[in-house]
Amino acid sequence: MFCINQSIAASSTLTRLSVVHLRRSQHAVIAGAVASFVGGETKTSGGSAQVRPQLIPIFTAVISTYQPKSMDAIPLLSRLIESLLEVIRRPLSTTGIGSGDDESVAVQSCIECIAGVFNKLPPKSPEHTTIANVMQREWLPALKSTTAQSVSSITLARSIEAFVWCTKALVLRADSSAPSIELCSLLAHPDYSIAKRAADAFELIMSDAVSGTAAVLSRETAATISLLYKQKFFALSIPHLLSMHSAALPAAAAGSVVKPSGSESSTTRVFVLLAASNLLRHLPQSVLLDSLKQVVRPRP
Hints:
The chain has 300 residues and is mostly helical.
């Protein structure tokens, strides 16, 4: 049976493919109307903005196709971003979406929409600063917390997903503020699912895939993509990965109070290798060959 989540995904893809081929003037009208609806259809609950999350996958498909030079023309952009961030922050019981699967789709779409907008915003714009501050002051501290009881599993899952997508948004445009080293350090996270997602993030960042959700940050949707972003991300990440692997990962535990045990160190080595393989297999061949001496060290 074709479930509702599959229907939403199919509708989102169809919407994106339809909108991306419109003339610029037509696209601006549609995207502006969608942004106005998302930002305008908010209601206050305890002082917080709320949006209708069920429709976010469709909104994301439209908003993600906006041209970088036209981002400042999106109506109510600041309110839109705050509304999407609030959906990510809200606990499971207060979203009013319905089933857990419905919420998962809505929250994931909010995260991807924010990342798509983040990639195209001017670095000094207020909206860019808002998202960057949330990355550094909310998501990353939640992931670095050493007290398991202090952060819920839902908050951890949403924090790592949002952090990964927004890191990709910055890496694609070769932004010097991209938290590449912080992403590497998350490979040593004590929560297996967080460490695994951090390793998989290297695949998400390096891949050129444009199908499904990855299309939000692709040339198809006019994302800002630097010509040499893969080389720069590799150059920043691989020394840290090699250091973590060869030195039993003390650097990965720098933000932790407890040094990893033998089993934790072994598990982290696996994720470091997975991250490194994701880096290497998406490098241009010429760069890969030049980098093999750095990555594959002969035994003494």
